[in-house]
Design brief:
The structure is a homodimer. Chain A is an alpha+beta fold. Chain A has helices at 35-40, 42-57, 90-99, 157-160, 179-184, 243-250, 279-290; strands at 2-6, 14-18, 24-27, 66-67, 83-86, 114-116, 129-131, 138-139, 142-148, 164-171, 174-175, 197-198, 202-203, 212-213, 216-217, 222-225, 228-231, 261-263, 303-307, 320-326.
């Protein structure tokens, strides 16, 4: 099942069910007005939404089916109560440290690292990305995220997987030149993480078939910058902490409530031939190889496209395709 | 105007208008079902809510008025899209550093420090506080918070004040023994900040009269631990960054959307005779005076009460009055 949210005058948009091939969609006001409303009562809502989805995919008789148009979308959750992003590809974290000549603590291989992001103002998949200054070091971060139902405090790895209800792609926009100063203050990111963007649709795990395995998504993420292939790292490779382990981590002292969005962190593979899912990583590799970074961060007008294809080359989530603009 | 949320089977509770003396209340389903709904359309909603509030305070004819009972409340916003907490009393931050023999950077006096907290699962004012282990170092943090309407990116200090629509008290529960390990990882708090609690009512700034001045609240916050007065620091004293300055900070690279909750950080005064609004600060003062901390962190069964009174001794927000329990 694939779900999406139309932009409307209402802040949470309108929930729509989208056909597997991303060609057609239908609103479901009789089931749930918004994706958050569906997640708030998922056990009861999911079968009803699946009925609509099955009929839509079978080409059955449904009223008010319309052509799916990504330009009319908000993020699947236009705003959320909880957006927590991991750094599950520890290879990436190790590279960051290596590039600045610092050792990474051994515990980073066993204890996940997460930060909490802004969730009151998400960007839709085709929204412009407003940034006040190019001097901030504008960068993308290509990631996977899951959406959970209610996860109680102290959920174990074994119990965590069943709480994953939907998956999306993420561009966790980052302002690299604001990060060192902000992290030096000791409380983590805030200004250095502007609004985050999500893929056109969120999909249930069964849509991924065998590619969804052990709470990891075994497919490459394709990243283009200005129509040039930037990287194609595999989200299922080198993920030190799977999503179930991340859920265990975030519920050590808290409940995670329905609609929690949990990100993987920038996808990063040891196989450097696959490229990167952020400019910072490529710059670190350049630093290590050439003694200095070469690839610049993004400028106003630059475009970033993030997408994932199934084995037959069909887009699973639709593309995040955005342009950076002056705020 | 004083607003509150009754706990109901719905996750966002039911918005109620409460009388100034906190004795009576009335639901307003014809105006707005929830506080978030009111905040989403505040300009249109506020006058309607004020009409009800004025009638309630005048003892006028209103249907279905009931006795206000704090035991039936959720937090004013039972969940929110954005909870960002400052460290506006830099005296407190300086003390933390001094107690561990570290220098505080000079920029801490000019550049606010904030972290983003969990907002999907707030505690009501009388809810038990579930913690997995006493070994986590259970502590309170007495604070003030404001709730804003939509604040656009790059809002200046001068323009920020008018976005403050409501104020509340906060207990920003903290797990002190998890903090050093978590901050050492560099991404700020997550596990060390369990669910946050808020006062019974949120009030509009005009309810505070002259005590609300220059985006600061000039009243003492009264903190009791197990019925013993723990501290009575004045929220209007030694606040290095007023709420307008904090709003300017949090909108440098983002919009803050309606219903953003922005906290002051633990209230802390240079006048040590006023006591502290968290145990960690008292322990730091003990460390500096006696060479070691003396006051223990909280145990299961301990109670914490946080309240603020007006000049005539009337409770403004009602009391946060909670008991720590094993999760």
């Amino acid at each position: 099942m694939k779900l999406s949210s139309l932009r409307t005058p209402l802040r949470d948009g309108q929930l729509i069910v989208v056909s597997r091939d991303l060609s057609r969609a239908v609103a479901v006001p009789a089931v749930a007005p918004t994706l958050q409303a569906a997640l708030d009562d998922w056990e009861r809502m999911e079968p009803k939404l699946r009925e609509v989805s099955d009929a839509l995919n079978a080409g059955g008789k449904l009223d008010n089916v319309f052509a799916f148009d990504v330009s009319k979308l908000a993020a699947p959750l236009p705003r959320a109560y909880h957006w927590v992003d991991g750094s599950a590809y520890v290879n990436h974290v190790e590279l960051v440290r290596k590039a600045r000549g610092a050792q990474m603590p051994e515990t980073f291989w066993t204890d996940p690292l997460v930060y909490q992001g802004g969730s009151d103002d998400f960007l839709g998949p085709c929204d412009d990305v407003p940034v006040p200054s190019e001097e901030f070091g504008i960068d993308l971060e290509g990631e996977i995220a899951v959406i959970t139902d209610d996860v109680p405090m102290r959920t174990t790895h074994d119990a965590a997987g069943s709480h994953i209800k939907l998956l999306m792609l993420v561009n966790d926009w980052s302002l690299r030149n604001l990060i060192p100063g902000e992290l030096a203050k000791g409380f983590g990111f805030y200004q250095s993480k502007p609004a985050t963007a999500f893929s056109p649709v969120a999909v249930t795990p069964d849509e991924l078939g065998a590619a969804w395995s052990h709470s990891t998504l075994q497919r490459p993420l394709t990243v283009h910058v200005n129509d040039e292939l930037f990287g194609r790292p595999n989200a299922g490779m080198d993920m030190t902490f799977d999503f179930a382990r991340l859920i265990e981590h975030i519920t050590k002292t808290r409940n995670a409530r329905a609609g929690t969005i949990l990100g993987s962190g920038t996808i990063s593979n040891y196989d450097r031939s696959l490229g990167s899912a952020c400019i910072a990583e490529r710059r670190m590799l350049e630093q290590l190889e050439h003694g200095k970074p070469i690839t610049p961060f993004l400028k106003f007008g630059d475009r970033v496209r993030i997408e994932m294809f199934d084995e037959e080359g069909r887009s699973i989530f639709g593309a995040i395709d955005q342009r950076v603009v002056r705020a």
